[in-house]
Amino acid sequence: MYKLLMILTSLVLLQGCAGLLVAGGATGGAMATDRRTVGTQLSDQTIEMRALHRLGETKPLWDNSRLAVVTTNGKALLLGQTPDDNGRRQAEEVVRGVPGVQDVFNEIRIGQPVSLSVQSRDTWLTSKVKSTLLAEKNLDGTKIKVVTENSEVFLIGLVTQREADIAVQLTRNIGGVAKVVTVFEYVQSAP
After folding, report:
1. 24 located within any domain
2. 45 and 67 assigned to the same domain
3. Is the pLDDT of residue 24 over 90?
4. Cis bond leading into 60, ω under 30°?
5. What is the pLDDT of residue 34?
6. Number of domains composing the chain
7. pLDDT in tens, 90-115
8. The pLDDT of residue 12 is above 80
9. At 143, is the secondary structure helix, strand, or coil?
10. Distances in Å between the alpha carbon of 188 and those of 11, 14, 45, 134, 163?
């Protein structure tokens, strides 16, 4: 039993290392294909870090909730769960106060933070969606960020209407997707 536990623990830890290595390589590639300028990408990352830091300092909200922030062009998408509507409003207020935030899309759900098994399922679902978008020949899947929260898939990015339509249709047809939420900013044509 002890050996099995050690093997499983090692696999989880090794998987995390590989994920970091892959994510590090993918980040550089994603920056190169992103329609935002490098300066805007860095600004959005700074906004996300500041927002999460400020949320982390907001007690007891942070301790009783599971919150995430994803930013594109100064527009912050708030995700996760909090026990009540007061926490939902408080989180939005905190994020609105971060320098550089132009708008907040509050998609925080009222309820207890999702379990580790739900988080794992969400990670798998994000991978399935991203892989599907990347495999589609009529779409540049690198232009779309995918985030899954409790089987709700959020599609984020600067896209054409045609790209958005294709991405939404593909995502809706993936098993396990409960809902598709778009946080797109539309551009006239693909470069």
Report:
1. no
2. yes
3. no
4. yes
5. 85
6. 2
7. 999 999 999 999 999 999 999 999 99
8. no
9. helix
10. 45, 43, 25, 21, 11
User: pLDDT at position 139, please?
Assistant: 95
Q: Percentage helix, strand, coil, to 5, in the chain?
A: 55, 25, 25
Whether 22 maps to a domain, the answer reads: no
Token pair 């495999």 is found at 135
Tell me: do 85 and 136 sit in the same domain: no
pTM: 0.81
Structural domain ending residue among the three candidates 71, 94, 110? 110
90 to 57, 60, 69, 93, 104: CA distances (angstroms): 12, 11, 14, 5, 12
CATH code, domain with 176: 3.30.1340.30
| Strand residues in the chain grouped as ranges (E) | 66-72, 75-82, 103-110, 145-149, 152-159, 179-186
- Answer with the residue of higher pLDDT: 73 or 10: 73
- Angle of helix 161-172 versus helix 116-135 axis, rounded to 10: 130
